[in-house]
Amino acid sequence: MSSVSVTESADCLQVQGHVQYDTPDHITPSNVHTSPLEQFHIWFNQAREANVREPDAMSLSTATTSGIPSSRMVLFKQLDKRGFVFYTNYTSRKSRELEQNPQAALLFFWREMSRQVRVLGRVEKLSKEESEEYFKSRPVGTRLGAWASHQSSVIGEDDLVHRLAEVQERFGVQASDKEGDVPLPDFWGGWRVIPSEVEFWLGKPSRLHDRVRYLRVEGSPDDQPRWTIDRLSP
């Protein structure tokens, strides 16, 4: 049974209950790593060890040039010295918005550990070589799917089935095959979010959560950034 209780009427759904966080550990500017990327590395590995379901799932928020936001769940695929990497179709809504307004927000929520990580930053495309290396590591079915899906476009009921059949015939492989030569599409690849702000959140009793925020020092290089670290009020 959910811990959330509600009161319902004809025109209103009101949430009353909520989870009471009670994590034993604490985070402060004095006990976190001096780099938010290294601190994320530590927390991500702890989430994996704690068997968090889908620790690589993250919310990605983008916005149009007029400021209209949109969010969706995507999969985090890589952390390097510059930032956080994910892959997608370059003709999708998220990519179109990133092309027009190259800023993004990421949010990881590891419910089993009462932890969140929030990331803000500008974006850049990965090189074709980087995207190709990752694309080759994907299962055959997902590589075919990248060719078959015109992501975010309107389609008919059976269009996707027909497109998949066409690309399977084109490349001479089936989605169920273990191996097959399916090349990287020109319209598919990676994005990297280069953080300017990273916040680590730890749930505590009475909503008095621990929050530690890193802000990039202006002018510091992307591959060796400097950071100021502050504790935020919950």
UniProtKB/TrEMBL annotation:
Top-level EC class: oxidoreductase
Domain annotation Pyridoxamine 5'-phosphate oxidase N-terminal: ranges: 47-161
EC number per UniProt: 1.4.3.5
Gene3D superfamilies membership: Electron Transport, Fmn-binding Protein, Chain A (2.30.110.10)
Domain of life from the UniProt record: Eukaryota
Cofactor: FMN
GO biological process: pyridoxine biosynthetic process
Entry keyword annotation includes ATP-binding: no
UniProt keyword list: Flavoprotein, FMN, Oxidoreductase
Residue ranges constituting the Pyridoxine 5'-phosphate oxidase dimerisation C-terminal domain according to the UniProt record: 188-234
UniProt keyword annotation of Oxidoreductase present: yes
One GO MF term: FMN binding
Entry-linked InterPro entries: Pyridox_Oxase, Pyridox_Oxase_CS, Pyridox_Oxase_N, Pyridoxamine_oxidase_dimer_C, Split_barrel_FMN-bd
PANTHER family (alphabetical): PYRIDOXINE-5'-PHOSPHATE OXIDASE, PYRIDOXINE-5-PHOSPHATE OXIDASE
HAMAP family, per the entry: PdxH
Name this protein carries in UniProt: pyridoxal 5'-phosphate synthase
Source organism of the structure: Suillus luteus UH-Slu-Lm8-n1
Taxonomic path: Eukaryota, Fungi, Dikarya, Basidiomycota, Agaricomycotina
